Every structure is written in C-alpha cells, then in structure tokens.
Amino acid sequence: MVPPGNDPFGPDRYGESFADVYDDWYDDVSDAEATAAFVSGFGPDQRVLELGVGTGRLSLAIDAAGHDVVGLDASVSMLDRFRSSTRSFAVGGDMAVMPVRTGAFDTVLVATNTLFNLHTEAGQVSCLAECRRALRLGGRLIVEAMIPAIADPALDRIVTTRSLDVDTAVLTATIRDTEAQQITGQHIEFSNSGVRMRPWKIRYTTLEQLDAMTSEAGFRLGQRSADWNGSPVDESSSNAVSVFVAV
Fold it and tell me: Cys-Cys with 11: which of 54, 72, 74, 135 at CB 3.0–4.6 Å?
C-alpha cells in the first residue's frame, strides 16, 4: 500500500472508512454481471486491470466470464476483505501512481465514479496517464461515472437520511463547491454503540472535460452509453459508461 500522506481525504481514506459496510450498502451499485458482459463484448481472454477493486465484487464476475483480472486498491481494509477467485488477485497502490507493468493489460476498468475519488484535477490526469501506460496499443479504458446535474445553489449544502431502522440511523451531509467541482461528504452513523463518521470527497467532471483529459493522456473516445446495457446517452441520463481506445 502507498503510505497515506497528510490529505485527510487521501487515496486510502475512502476504503478505510467504508470497508466494513461496503458490500451491504453498495451491493446494487454497478451490476456485476452486466459489467462482466460489457467487458466480454470486446473479446475473450482479456487481461483486465480494475482500479478501486475494493472487496472484489466486480472482479469476481469478470473472472468468471473467462478473463484474467488484477485489482488495485489503496485501502488495506478493502484488500483484507477482497474475495479472490481462481485467477484474480489484488495489489495495494494509488491509482495516480500505479505499481503495474507498462503495456500489460488489454482493458482498464474504472467503475462506479472511482475516478472521481481522486479529488483533484492533477490526480485524475495522473491516473489517466497511468492507465495509458498500463494498456497495450489499442487497449481500452472503460470509465463509469455520473453526469453532473445542472448546478442548483439550493443543493450546495444538504443533509439527507440514508437509512433508518430500530437500532441505527445514517445521515448523509454534503457540501458542494461548484467552482472546484468538488463534493465533500460525511455519512454519519448513529447507533447504540455511538457515532461513526465515514468521510468522502470527490471531484466530478463533465463528459467534455473527461474527453479532454483522456485525449491528452493518449486516448480517443470509442463509444459511450448510459449504462452497461448500451442504452443511449440523452438529456435525461445521470450516468455514462465511456470506452476510450489507447492510441
């Protein structure tokens, strides 16, 4: 693992905050079977690098589809919970400085807003350059990310109820900085044993900004859909799956 720096929202912090609840809270995020089928659409026997592999939910499905998967995550707690399969395995490291061989992969997968967990433009640019280095010529970078909604000042500071039952209540508090394109949040979990804070921070981009950053890193846009099933992107879309080709 890359040693954490002075950034309280550094590359390892998200996983360390959420590892114990990730599978319970986010099991329905990024349909694993649909993701694996999407990857398989580019050919059999691919060597796949998944960034932010977490507990390995997506990598297991991709492995089961016949691909050789390597997962990367900065969080020791996430990697401790990683569910390895016959061929997939995970390594510790920062997405912006990846400990992988040059040209070793056919596909790099960055699912579920994982790119946005690098909460500075410089970090995202570095990550995309590293993705290009890790890919063979003609390889694919697949990025799943939200499409930012039109800025509404009324939503810059909000508190919502994430879940509520007889023993626990989880509130989500967020502050959005539209100029920096950052959202800083806390999941605040109240239970009989006390209060648990689960901090997170993202830097979101528009699709145009994502296209510009990937182009600078050595990619061209190959295709884009609203989901893993290939639905077209339109004005109502809140998500996009973009495939960039290494050139």
Answer: 74
CB atoms within 10 A of CB 7: 13
Sign, Cα dihedral of 140, 207, 33, 13: positive
Alpha carbon 125 to its chain's center:
15
Residue with tokens 């390995």: 56
Q: Is residue 187 within a helix (H) or strand (E), and if so which, with residue range?
A: strand 182-191
82-92 pLDDT per residue, tens:
876 656 789 99
How many other C-beta atoms are found inside a 10 Å radius of the C-beta of residue 59? 30
Tokens of 157: 């500071």
pTM: 0.92
User: What backbone phi and psi angles, to 5 degrees, belong to 192?
Assistant: -65, -20
183-240 pLDDT per residue, tens: 999 999 999 999 999 999 999 999 999 999 999 999 999 999 999 999 999 999 999 9
Residue whose structure tokens are 């600078």:
216
